[in-house]
Amino acid sequence: MEKEQLVEIANRAMPFGQYKGRVLIDLPEAYLLWFARKGEFPPGRLGELMQITLAIKIEGLEGLVKPLKRG
């Protein structure tokens, strides 16, 4: 996990679906687990960041990411 990834997770909005517009770190863990159970995170950078976000949430490390939010 790199600092740039954490900053992006704290500020990048979900581009589609039920939680469109919500910042990745604010996505419900259950939503991220749904993607993991399907084995189908979105391709590319978004899927990579969503997988890292899930790991952060499972480990209870959200407090490290939330201070990186802009605005």
Characterization of this structure:
It is a single chain. The protein is mostly helical. The protein has helices spanning 3-11, 29-38, 44-58, 62-65. Helix 2 (29-38) packs across helix 3 (44-58).
Can you tag this structure with a few keywords?
54% helix, mainly alpha, 71 residues, 0% strand, 4 helices
> How many β strands by DSSP?
0
Structural class: mainly alpha
- So how many helices? 4
Which strand-content bin applies to the residues?
A: under 5%
Summed up:
The protein has 71 residues and is mainly α.
Compile the SSE list and pairings.
Elements: H1 3-11, H2 29-38, H3 44-58, H4 62-65
Helix pairs in contact: 2-3
